[in-house]
């Protein structure tokens, strides 16, 4: 798998060096520039000399944007918020890899010490039909919001919070639910998948609620509705290639998709077994 091979799990680069190693590197950036959704877009080459190896990738882009602004050019548009790897706002392809070469790392937490002096970097936005480009590296990810709106919630009574131990949850289920809940909705799974499938994202949302007692009331309707919405938005089908999990900065495992498929099969069978509405109502339905 390309993503797995391209990512590194251990640091190590000539830019790190020792006490006397290089502290700055010179880069050549090839950045996707697109003025708006209707613009065709193009790759633009930008020289980035004197980049500190202590910078994060987004800080490097900040420096490049300052230089572009001073030169009277349009800065590169990219999305960001917390810059701590938890909000899911940042996201771009770096040399063809979602979030860049470091495994389990968002691009905001990727540091320039992992790149070489003189290296060329190709920086592009997520590529998927449901994620249209707004400008440069910024894409519209509202499709994820629609998938969540279709069923990513539970029904719970209002009032004071219940006691933490009122509903027992088996430890394996709690651990698996917490693992799935780590999904930050960045979209790397979609960008890495050759089918542009959002199945790992959808599976993470379905799994973390479906494993808990509080999520059982809507368990069947949740998976049916979220999958139907996923498909209607133009996301592709899952063919178990595994690029999504390899690119995921939170390392959501493929087992989440297996759980989703189990829930979907079970919900579909229950729906087929359910008697017609008029039959349930009895003789009064024929009036």
Description:
The chain is of the alpha+beta class and 287 residues long. The protein has 2 domains: 2-134, Beta-grasp domain (Ubiquitin-like (UB roll), Roll), CATH 3.10.20; 142-273, Alpha-helical ferredoxin (Fumarate Reductase Iron-sulfur Protein, Chain B, domain 2, Orthogonal Bundle). The protein contains 10 helices and 7 strands. It has helices at residues 2-6, 57-70, 142-149, 171-181, 188-192, 199-210, 219-232, 243-247, 255-273, 277-281, and strands at 24-33, 42-52, 93-94, 97-98, 120-124, 133-135, 138-139. A 5-stranded mixed β-sheet has the order 2-1-5-3-4. It has a two-stranded antiparallel ribbon with strand order 6-7. The protein starts with a helix and ends in a 6-residue tail after the last helix.
């Amino acid at each position: 798998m390309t993503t797995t091979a391209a990512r590194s799990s251990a640091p190590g680069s000539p830019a790190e060096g020792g006490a006397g190693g290089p502290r700055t590197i010179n880069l050549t950036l090839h950045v996707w520039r697109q003025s708006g959704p209707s613009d065709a877009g193009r790759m633009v080459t930008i020289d980035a000399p004197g980049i500190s190896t202590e910078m994060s990738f987004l800080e490097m882009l900040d420096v490049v944007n300052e230089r572009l602004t001073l030169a009277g050019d349009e800065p590169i548009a990219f999305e960001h918020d917390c810059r701590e790897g938890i909000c899911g706002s940042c996201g771009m392809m770096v040399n063809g890899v979602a979030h860049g070469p470091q495994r389990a790392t968002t691009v905001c937490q990727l540091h320039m010490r992992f790149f070489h002096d003189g290296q060329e970097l190709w920086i592009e936005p997520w590529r998927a039909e449901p994620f249209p480009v707004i400008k440069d590296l910024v894409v519209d990810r509202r499709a994820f919001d629609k998938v969540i709106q279709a069923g990513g919630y539970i029904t719970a009574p209002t009032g004071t919070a219940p006691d933490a131990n009122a509903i027992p949850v088996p430890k394996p289920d709690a651990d698996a639910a917490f693992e799935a809940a780590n999904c930050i909705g960045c979209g790397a799974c979609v960008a890495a998948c050759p089918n542009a499938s959002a199945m790992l994202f959808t599976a993470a949302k379905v799994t973390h609620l479906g494993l808990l007692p509080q999520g059982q009331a809507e368990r069947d309707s949740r998976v049916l509705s979220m999958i139907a919405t996923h498909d209607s938005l133009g996301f592709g089908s899952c063919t178990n290639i595994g690029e999504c999990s390899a690119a995921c900065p939170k390392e959501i495992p493929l087992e989440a998709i297996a759980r989703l498929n189990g829930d979907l099969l079970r919900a579909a069978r229950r729906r087929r077994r359910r008697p017609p509405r008029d039959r349930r109502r009895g003789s009064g339905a024929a009036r």
